[in-house]
Design brief:
19% strand; ATP-binding; RNA-binding; 4 domains; alpha+beta; Methionyl/Leucyl_tRNA_Synth; Leucine--tRNA ligase; cytoplasm; Rossmann fold
RNA sequence: GCCCGGGUGGCGGAAUGGUAUACGCAAAGGACUUAAAAUCCUUGGCUCCUAACGGGGCUUGUGGGUUCGACUCCCACCUCGGGCACCA
C-alpha cells in the first residue's frame, strides 16, 4: 500500500544512507560494455557552509551525470575541496583559529551538506588540495616546471595587496583592486617566483579553435591574452651606438612618424644620460612618473605630459629625417618595447601629444606593410598582452615552494624523495606585511641543508598561489591511489579530455586559463600521453547566477540570502534541486532571482507525482504497457524524446515543463498502467533522485534488489510519435482567421477545398479569386488575395 | 574606443521562418471547510465595438528592409550585461 504522505525528510535521509552503503556511484576505471564519460564542476572552496550558488553549481549538473549513467555511460562525477588559500586563512585569523583546523572542520561539515543534495558523487576519489599527499605532487610538478625553465625567480614590478599583505597575479587584479578584498593595489618591486605562461600565449589562443566551448568564453580568453601583430623597427640615434626599438602594429604609417617616445622605465633613458642636455629636467620627470600609480596614469590619460630629450635625435629609416625623442608616461614600459614611433596623423594619442607640444603632424600616404618592414630593416613581431604568472604568496596557508636557497648554489630544488615539503605548524601565522611570508618565522623549518652542496641553506618561505593547486586537480581524481600522481596512460586515454566541465564565469581568465596552460606544459613534459591531446576540457559550460529575493546578488550584508538548508528542511532536497533546474536554461549566462513561490510550484508538482501511485491501475502488475488512449501514448513517447534531448542540451527547464505536461495528462487518465508509470519515474529520476527511488521500490514491492538510478533510460518509439491528425492553420494575407483539425493524410487539394469552404474564409474574401495559395504541409495554408 | 552576449505578459521563462506568450509563479472567481491552510475547478497580453453571443485592431527594445508569412533573417539605432583598453 502506498504511503499516504510524502515524507521527504525521511525518504531523502534513507536513500542517501543506502546509496552511501551500497556505493552505487563508485566509478570503476573501466566498466564492461560501457563508454567512459567524465564530467565535473569546479570544486568548492571550504568556506564554511554551502550556499544556494553551490546547490546551483552541483545539483543541476548532477541531473546530467545521472541521465548519462542511465544512458549506459560509465560516468565519473567526482568532488573535492580547493582547501588552501586566502579566504580560509583570513576567516581563521578573524576567529583566532588555526587555518588547518578551520579548513578541515569546514570540509567535514560541507561533506554532509553535499550529501544532502543527493548528488551522485564518487566520494572514493575525493581530492583535498591541502593534504600533504596532494600537495606533494603540486610541488613535484612545480619542480618539473622549474627544471624546464618554466618556473623562475625574478625581481619584477608586482601587484601588492596592502590588506591581504601579499602579491597577486595580474588575473587577480580587477580595476586595479584586489579581486578578493577590493583594496587598491600598490605597485612594488619584489623578487618573486613566476611561471612562464607567456611561452604558451600563442598556443593558448590557437588551440581554442578546436574546443567545443561557448564563443564568448573563447573571446574573453583571446582578449585577455591580447595578441597584436606588428613589427619591431629600429630607429638609429644620431651620432650614437644606441638605437630605439619601437613596436608598432602600423608599420605602414612610418612616413608619418615625426617623433619618438620612450617610456620613463625604458633603460635607454639612462644609457643616453651623457648626451641629454636637459638631464635634470628629464630625471625629475622620470622620477615623478615612477611614483604615479597605474590608476593615476589612467586618470591623467587625457592630459598628456612629457619632456623632450634635448640633444638626442633619431633617424626615421623611411624618410631619413631627423626626428626628436621624448620621454612620456603615456608610453608604458611593460608594453611592447617600451618605445614608440609617434604618428600623430594616424594615432589619436600621438595627435593629442603633438598638439600640446607643437610637434609636426604630417599626413603622408600609407605604404604596403610587408615591404616597408623589410626595407627599413624591421622585423615582424607578434606581441601579447599576457604577462607571466606571479605565483609567490607571502602567506601561510598555501603549498610551500619546494626550493632551498643556498649562498653558493643559488635556488636549488628539493630532492624528489624529500617531497612533500610539509607546511610546518606555527603559532603566529598572520601575514607580516614586510614582504616576507609568516613561514620566515619558523626558524627551525627554514634552516636546512643545500640538497646540492650540503652546506647550510634556507628554505623558500613563500607559498604557492591557490590557482596552482587547482591547475591539475582534475587529474588527481584519476589517480586512485592518493599517494601517487603517476597515472597509467590507459587511464588518461579512457578519461581525458574531460567531456564536460562546468563552472563560474569568474574563472574564464583565471582557473580556466591556468589549467589549460598546466595541461599543455605537462603534455610537453611527457607526463600526458600524446594521443590524449593537449587540452583538458573538451566542452565547457558557464552557469548563470542565482540572485537574492530582491534581484540583487545574494549577500549576508544585504539580507537577501536564501538558505538552501532551510528549504531542504521545509520542502526537501528534490524540490530545491528541481526548482534550480527549472528556473531557466543552464547553458546561458543569465541571472535568475530565487523565488520562494517558484519553488512551491515545483514542490506541488512532486506532491502530485507522489499521489499518482494511488491511481488504481498502477497497482495492477499484470498490465500491458500499451495505453488504450492513443493521444496519451503519443504524449508519453514525445516526452521521452524531449526530456532526453533537453537534458543533453542543458535545457533542464523545458525538460521539467514537459514532465509537468505529461503529469497533467496522466492525472486525467484512468488507465495508467504500471509500465508507463515506471517510465515516468525513470524520466523524473535524474531530477528527483530520492522520491523516484522510493516510488520505484514501492512498485517493486520493496524488494530493493535494484536502484532506479541503475536502470536504463527509456526508449521512445518514433512510430508512436507521429500524429494522425494535425491542426491546420488557415491564414488570409498572413493573418490567422481559422483553424481546423484534419487527418494527417489529407492531400493538398483537399486542404485547399476545406479551407476555401470555411465559413470564416468566405466571410473574409467573399467570392474573390485568391491570387496565390501557399500550403505548408501539415501546418498551415495562407490564402493571398 | 574595440570585441562578445542579451532585450518577449505583473514575474522566471517557451517558441530559431509558419496559431507568440508553452510550463510554472503571482492574480481574480468558484468548490470543499464553522473558518483558515492545503487541495481541486475555472479565467488568462493590451485595446476597441457589443447588453450578450461574438467580432475587429494592436503587441516580442525602436525604425526600416527581405518574405505569402519575421521574436526568428538583413541594415541602422536605443538600451542592459560582460571582456579588453593611453596595448602603440
Amino acid at each position: 500500500m502506498a504511503p499516504q504522505k510524502y515524507d521527504f525528510r525521511k525518504i531523502e535521509k534513507k536513500w542517501q544512507n543506502v546509496w552511501k552503503k551500497t556505493e552505487i556511484y563508485k566509478t570503476p576505471d573501466k566498466a564492461r560494455g560501457k563508454e567512459n564519460l567524465y564530467t565535473s564542476v569546479e570544486f568548492p572552496y571550504p568556506s564554511g557552509n554551502l550556499h544556494t550558488g553551490h546547490w546551483y553549481a552541483f545539483s543541476v549538473p548532477d541531473i546530467y551525470a545521472r541521465f548519462k549513467r542511465m544512458c549506459g555511460f560509465n560516468v565519473l562525477f567526482p568532488i573535492g575541496f580547493d582547501s588552501f588559500g586566502l579566504p580560509a586563512e583570513n576567516a581563521a585569523i578573524k576567529r583566532g583559529i588555526n587555518p588547518r583546523k578551520w579548513t578541515y572542520g569546514n570540509i567535514n561539515f560541507m561533506r554532509k551538506q553535499l550529501c544532502s543534495m543527493g548528488a551522485s558523487f564518487d566520494w572514493s576519489r575525493e581530492v583535498i588540495t591541502s593534504d600533504p599527499e596532494y600537495y606533494k605532487w603540486t610541488q613535484w610538478l612545480f619542480l618539473q616546471f622549474f627544471k624546464k625553465g618554466l618556473a623562475y625567480q625574478a625581481e619584477t614590478a608586482v601587484n601588492w595587496c596592502p590588506t591581504d599583505k601579499t602579491v597577486l597575479a595580474n588575473e587577480q587584479v580587477v580595476d586595479n583592486c584586489c579581486e578578493r578584498c577590493g583594496s587598491e593595489i600598490e605597485r612594488r618591486r619584489m623578487k618573486q617566483w613566476l611561471i612562464k605562461i607567456t611561452d604558451y600565449a600563442e598556443r593558448l589562443i590557437n588551440d581554442l579553435e578546436k574546443l567545443n566551448w561557448p564563443e564568448e568564453i573563447k573571446e574573453a580568453q583571446k582578449n585577455w591574452i591580447g595578441r597584436s601583430e606588428g613589427a619591431v623597427i629600429e630607429f638609429k640615434i644620431q651620432n650614437s651606438k644606441f638605437k630605439i626599438l619601437a613596436f608598432t602594429t602600423r608599420p605602414d604609417t612610418i612616413f608619418g612618424a615625426t617623433y619618438m617616445v620612450l617610456a620613463p622605465e625604458n633603460s635607454l633613458v639612462k644609457n643616453l644620460e651623457s648626451r641629454i642636455l636637459n638631464l635634470e629636467e628629464v630625471k625629475r620627470y622620470v622620477e615623478k612618473a615612477g611614483r604615479k600609480t597605474e590608476l593615476q596614469r589612467q586618470e591623467e590619460a587625457k592630459d598628456k605630459t612629457g619632456v623632450e630629450l634635448k640633444g638626442v635625435k633619431a633617424i626615421n629609416p623611411a624618410t631619413k629625417e631627423e626626428i626628436p625623442v621624448w620621454v612620456a608616461d603615456y608610453v608604458l614600459g611593460s608594453v611592447g618595447t617600451g618605445a614608440i614611433m609617434a604618428v600623430p596623423a594616424h594615432d589619436e594619442r600621438d595627435r593629442q601629444f603633438a598638439e600640446k607640444f607643437n610637434l609636426p603632424i604630417v599626413d603622408k600616404p600609407l605604404v604596403g606593410r610587408d615591404e616597408i618592414v623589410k626595407k627599413v630593416g624591421g622585423e615582424k613581431k607578434t606581441q601579447y598582452r599576457l604577462r607571466d604568472w606571479v605565483v609567490s604568496r607571502q602567506r601561510y596557508w598555501g603549498c610551500p615552494i619546494p626550493i632551498v636557497h643556498c649562498s653558493k648554489c643559488g635556488a636549488v630544488p628539493v630532492a624528489e624523495w624529500d617531497l612533500p615539503v610539509k607546511l610546518p605548524p606555527i603559532k603566529d601565522y598572520k601575514p607580516t606585511g614586510d614582504g616576507r611570508s609568516p613561514l620566515a618565522k619558523a626558524e627551525k623549518w627554514v634552516k636546512t641543508k643545500c640538497p646540492k652542496c650540503k652546506s647550510s641553506a634556507e628554505r623558500e618561505t613563500d607559498t604557492l598561489d591557490t590557482f596552482v593547486d587547482s591547475s591539475w586537480y582534475y587529474l588527481a581524481y584519476l589517480a586512485k591511489n592518493k599517494s601517487r600522481f603517476q597515472i597509467p596512460d590507459s587511464r588518461f586515454k579512457t578519461w581525458m579530455p574531460m567531456d564536460l566541465y562546468s563552472g563560474g564565469v569568474e574563472h574564464t581568465t583565471m582557473h580556466l586559463l591556468y589549467s589549460r596552460f598546466f595541461y599543455k606544459a605537462m603534455h610537453d613534459l611527457g607526463l600526458i600521453p600524446k594521443e590524449v591531446g593537449n587540452e583538458p576540457y573538451a566542452k565547457r559550460l558557464n552557469r548563470g547566477l542565482i540572485l537574492g529575493l530582491d534581484g540583487q546578488k545574494m549577500s549576508k550584508s544585504r539580507g537577501n540570502v536564501a538558505d538552501p538548508d532551510q528549504y531542504v528542511h521545509e520542502l526537501g532536497a528534490d524540490s530545491v534541486r528541481m526548482y534550480l533546474a527549472f528556473i531557466g536554461p543552464y547553458n546561458e549566462v543569465g541571472a535568475y532571482p530565487w523565488d520562494p513561490h517558484g519553488i512551491l510550484g515545483v514542490h506541488r508538482f512532486l506532491q502530485r507525482v507522489w499521489k499518482l501511485i494511488q491511481n488504481a491501475k498502477i497497482k495492477n502488475q499484470n498490465d500491458n504497457s500499451k495505453l488504450k488512449n492513443n493521444n496519451l501514448e503519443r504524449l508519453l513517447h514525445k516526452t521521452i524524446k524531449k526530456v532526453g534531448e533537453d537534458i543533453e542540451n542543458f535545457k533542464f527547464n523545458t525538460a521539467i515543463s514537459a514532465l509537468m505536461i505529461l503529469l497533467n495528462e496522466f492525472e486525467k487518465s484512468h488507465e495508467l498502467g504500471i509500465k508507463n508509470y515506471e517510465v515516468f519515474l525513470k524520466l523524473l529520476a535524474p531530477f528527483a533522485p530520492h522520491m523516484t527511488e522510493e516510488l520505484w521500490q514501492e512498485t517493486r514491492n520493496k524488494k530493493q534488489e535494484t536502484s532506479i538510478h541503475l536502470e536504463s533510460w527509456p526508449k521512445y518509439n518514433p512510430k508512436l510519435i507521429k500524429e494522425d491528425t494535425f491542426t491546420l492553420v488557415i491564414q488570409i494575407n498572413g493573418k490567422t482567421r481559422d483553424t481546423v483539425e484534419a487527418p494527417a493524410d489529407t492531400t493538398e487539394e483537399e486542404v485547399k477545398k476545406i479551407s476555401l469552404g470555411r465559413e470564416k474564409v468566405i466571410k473574409h474574401i467573399g467570392f474573390q479569386e485568391p491570387r496565390k495559395i501557399i500550403y505548408i504541409p501539415k501546418r498551415l495554408i495562407n490564402i493571398v488575395i
